[in-house]
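Q: Could you fold this chain for me?
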Amino acid sequence: MRLLPEAVRRLAAWCAVVLLVSGVGYVGIRLCAELRTAVVPVLLALLGSALLGPFHRRMVKARVNRSVAAAVTCVAVVAVVGGAVYIVVAALIESGDEIVASLKAAARGLTQHFGAAGTSLDDVASNARELLRKFGGTAASGVISGVSVVGESIAMAVLALLLVFFFLRDSDRAVDGLRAVAPRGTADTVEAMARRAFRAVEGFMRGTTLIAFIDAACITVGLLVLRVPGAAGLGALVFVGAYIPYLGAFLSGGVAVLVALADRGFVIALWALGVVLAVQVLEGHVLQPMIQSRTVQMHPAVVMLTITAGASVAGILGMLLAVPLTAAAFGVMYELRERYTAPPETGAPGTASAGGS
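A: Sure. Below is the predicted structure, expressed as structure tokens.
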């Protein structure tokens, strides 16, 4: 190795480090995929604890028993999430036939203006219901596997809720437990890394929740002004979708535009699209820089690549978990850099003169 130039040896060392880290990361991801029924609830519970921690701490400061405070917090989560899901599903079911009818009417209008191209669109819209029936028949053939997936999802959700309860109730013991399992001489470093990572996740969840609430409120008000049916449900859908940065808001906004098209026509749908785009501009240029820059400092390109990687690994759950996990990793990296970057020597030449000038 000494026969090689210094630059080549440095490059080889960095390549070995990158390969080692990539291999460990790949094995870790594969293990998490195999043990997803246990890993996913833990990750969801950590996100829930990061989001609900301030509420639980306020209740504890108000002299509420820790177990009672954790139970009340979990019950509130079930009520809010269950109510939001019910509102969204009910609104979409009520508007489904109207969406299909509106698309057929739009296709007929295109037929009058564009001839053959519009006719083909009209045929597609006319056959949409038949296509849905065929798709439903195909899906029904795999109903057993579908039931198993639903059962697994329910089991993971219940486990995640129970873990949120225990994480909140025993949060005061987490530091002692972490220091007990840390290797000798590394307890302080491990604790600092864990605190930094959890603060990053907590900041992401808090900032995303605030942005989601503002987005949902603005879009709901806009849809109410336009008299679009199911505005509350669509606002709840926007709120839930905002936890997947960029893509979630785009998809939930598209559903709102479709509902507006179904009930109010093409012009109102354009106005609804304008409302959605205006809110997205507000989020991207005002809310994200102002709120998330104080909690999680990640470039939008990093966020988009992280979401794509998460989707390729674990689908929708991967998209939901990718950004907060990356935020935690960035927090750990910042902590290590601050701890192990050598500070400038105080006795170095020029330091005294710089301080005196």
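A (continued): DSSP finds 13 helices and no strands in the chain.
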